[in-house]
Each structure stands twice: as structure tokens, then as C-alpha cells.
Amino acid sequence: MKKSIAVLGSTGSIGVQSLDVAEKSGYEVKALTANRDFRKLEEQIRKFKPECAALSDVAAAAELRLRVKDTSTKVYSGIEGVTYCAEKTDADTVIDSIVGLAGLSPALAVLESGKTLALANKEALVAGGHLVLDAAKKTGKVILPVDSEHSAIFQCLQGKPSNKALKKIILTASGGPFFGRTREELKNVTAADALKHPNWDMGAKITIDSASMFNKGLELIEAHFLFGVAPENIDVLVHRESIIHSLIEYDDNSVIAQLGLPDMRIPIQYALTYPERYPSPVGELKLSEIGRLTFFEPDYEVFDCLGICREAIIKGGLYPAAVNSANEEANRLFREGKIGFLDLGRLIRTAFSVTPDKPDFTLEDVYETDKAARQAVLAAV
Ligand code: MN
Predict the structure, then answer these.
(1) 4-145 fold
(2) pLDDT tens digits, 2-25
(3) How many angstroms does the Cα of residue 78 sit away from the middle of ligand 1?
(4) What are phi and psi for residue 31, nearest 5 degrees?
(5) Predicted TM-score of the model (pTM)
């Protein structure tokens, strides 16, 4: 039988690349959802003919419904519509590539309905933590990581020994466009400067997160939950060329790495074909042409967001959710030119003081924390 998929966040960078992989692999596409880009979603509906589609923006969904009424695709609206598609579709694998905390409730819906979740949205696991892990455990499904670093670790772990010999995870980071700069030099940088990412072509929010290294902080938290490794055993290593996508270290100090060209279609395809592998449209890695690979310790003083995330995961409970929401707000303010680059860390840190100590939280607690953290940021601008 033909494999079928659903893509949540289908008009974004990862969504578009997922559909590219689906098309080349001949997968059936059963559901597509997005935030508000009805034009792009209409194009995708006409091409892939899904059973259902949704836009979380209600007005955009109404427009889309009119535009595709000659097709057999049913259009839903609002976050409920997105979550409904995630839950009701009978696709084998659902890719969650929604940006931000909005990806959490659809991720839970996918897991609770017993389908395989390919997770590109890192905020779901960062903010949802044990809620997401518990939902996965109930149906016994592995969460398939789509993020390049986590896919790399997941690939390195294939065939791992049954004893607990995994000592360390080494997450690689490109260092972003501001690598090597001092705080003084970052005072007046703008969102446009930050959007010039050296290696990866990504959406605007994640590109800013990458410039501030908050993205690597989110990935550290995500790695902790996905692989059950304590935060102190997760190192971050700056690797400018983005060829080694991450590494693991065993007790015998043997280190295993996954390498490839920086192209998201490799981790996306692996999540969709796991445990099998097939030819990919991505080019071969020719190390002799790359010549050399370089490595540096991250600068925790300049990139304070990285340390904030480390602190949040050590504190546990709702703290990762709080710093994530604070960052969503601060990231937006920076993109709108309302705050400076160096304000990011200062503003995100305000979330700590409004977060309750609650290791065993509920989904409602996450949303309350979200509100409080955003308010704390706005109050401190
Ligand atoms: Mn990544």
C-alpha cells in the first residue's frame, strides 16, 4: 500500500520541503494545514488533492473555502480545525512543522490518535515536555525527529548497545550570522542583518532564533526530552560548516557523527522512510571539496540565550515553556524593530520570575505560563 502523510504547517519552509520529498517518493498527501497563506495552500490543495485542509486564521480559511469549492477537499478553520485535521486524518505519518507553541496541541492530537509523529516543531516538546512524552508512551510510538541535529543523533543511535553506554550528546551549531562578534558589536544589528544565515535556508522566526542561539537552546531542551539525556551531558559545539549535524559519545569515548550537506530534505526523508533508506535528491557529500571542518566552543557571554535555555531545563517543570513563550514574544518584537538584539536575553529572562514551580503540570498550566511570560516580556520592554 502507498504510504500516506499529512503536513501541518505545509506552507512554511519545512512544509514545502516535506511535500517535495512526498512528491518524489510518490506518497499520498491526506491533510494539509497552515496559518494564513491561503494562496499557497490553494496551490498545494490543487496539486496534492488532500481529503482535508485547515487554516488557523478564520478569515483566511473562509477565503480558501471559496477558492477550492470545485475540489473535494474539505476546509476547516481555527486552531481547532488544524487540530481536527491532525487527529482525524488516517495518514500513516503526520509531520508537525508548525512554528511556535501553536504546534503543541496538534502534536498531542497526532500522538493520542495513535499515528506516527514526525516532529519538526521544537516548541511542542520544549513547552509540552512530559505531556508529549506521556502521549507517545501510551501508544508506544517513537517520535521521529525532523530537526537536522536530532535526526543526526537519532541516526547515530541506530543499533546502539542495549546497556546504558550513551555518555554524551554533542549538538552542533553553525554559530549563525553573528559568530565571533562581541556584545558591543551586536548593539545595533537589525533583523535584516540576522536574516543572512550562512548555511540554512529557514523561516524568519527560526533564523532570528539561530542568530541569538536561542534556537540551539531549544534544541538542547528538545534533545533532553527526545533522548533522555541529562542537560549536563549535552554539549554544544560551534561548527561553522554545518556538515556534521551532531554527534554522540559512548562510555568508551568512541564518538559517532552523522554528516551530510546542509539540506533539510535528508532528515525529512529519513523521518518519512524510517527505518528504510532510499535515494534522495540531495547531492553527495564530497569532503575533499570541503577541505576542512572547524570547531569552537560557544560564547555563552555574547549569546546569553543559550545559557538561559540551559538554566530553564535544569530548573525543569514549566520553565522551558516560559522561556520559549518569552522568546516568541521577544523574537517578534525584534523582527518588528521594537527592541535591540541585546534586549532578547534580558527580556526572555523576565519569564523566570513569573513561572510557578510545578514539575507535574497540565496543558492548561502551559497556556497560563505562556500568557504570563508574554506579559512579563511586554512589561519589561
Ligand atoms: Mn536544527
Answers:
(1) Rossmann fold (3.40.50)
(2) 899 999 999 999 999 999 999 999
(3) 28
(4) -150, 145
(5) 0.94
Residue where the block lists cell 533522548 = 227
DSSP-derived 3-state class of residue 256: strand
Retrieve residue 283's grid coordinates: 547531492
User: What does the alpha-carbon distance between residue 214 and residue 218 come to, in Å, rounded to a whole number?
Assistant: 6
Centre of ligand 1 from the C-alpha of residue 72, in Å: 36
Ligand 1 centroid – CA 75 distance (Å): 31
Neighbours of ion ligand 1 (CB under 5 A): 147-149
Grid cell for residue 322: 516560559
**Cα(215) to centroid of ligand 1, in Å?**
7
Task: State the cell numbers at 22.
Answer: 512526498
The domain ranges of the chain are: 4-145, 150-262+288-315
CA of 200 to the centre of ligand 1 (A): 9
**Burial classification of residue 247, based on how many CB atoms lie within 10 Å of its CB (0-12 exposed, 13-18 middle, 19 or more buried):** buried
Q: Ligand 1: distance of its center to the CA of 125 in Å?
A: 14
The 10 Å Cβ neighbour count of residue 259 is 14
Query: What are the pLDDT digits (tens) for 164-213?
Result: 889 999 999 999 999 999 999 999 999 999 887 667 667 788 899 999 99
Phi, psi (deg, nearest 5) at residue 361? -85, 165
